[in-house]
Amino acid sequence: MSAEFSILSATLLFLFVIDPFGNIPILLSVMKGVPQKRQYQIVVRDGLIGLIILVCFLFFGAEFLALLHLETESISIAGGVVLFVIALKMIFPSPYAKDAGPVMEPFIVPISIPMLAGPSTLATLLVMVKSYPNDQQDLLISVSAAWGTSVVILAMAPLLNRVLKEKGLAALERLMGMLLLMMSVQMLVNGIRSLFTHTLASL
Prior knowledge:
Blueprint lengths: L6 H12 L1 H11 L5 H32 L4 H20 L19 H6 L2 H13 L4 H20 L1 H46 L1
Membrane topology: Multi-pass membrane protein
Family: Belongs to the UPF0056 (MarC) family.
Organism: Marinomonas hwangdonensis
């Protein structure tokens, strides 16, 4: 039996996976030379595109999973493993992870994809859709809240960079990584417990 759905918990999970604080250095790099007013416009535009992608996965994710014949337990365990790896990367970042490539005015990449609607976020959304098939409206609220918070944080990137500096941003990302690590372990535990329960019930 799945645990009761919580809008707050789901919102925090999506927020940790999107990791807007960890994306600030990349955003500042790709926005270098772009006027600040134009930066806000780009973040809002690409943010809306990212939201459209997330909503599409929310309402059509169940059909995608059904097409692949994936069960809730396997989705939960796989999702927990993916989030565990993401959390470790947030806590112990690679020294090459902040390379953003050539500088130009961004369009869709990298803000819409992968910052807001990256593979890890979409995979997490598919896990939630499969685990809570009757809570799509609440999932929409959670995704929208996490998306809105992330867009606001990304729009405030220049201000946050001046206030928190590189070390402050790194500390926030590690804190989010620790919280995500605990949530990923819980997801693994729930998946494994449910798997054993179903196995014993079928004996």
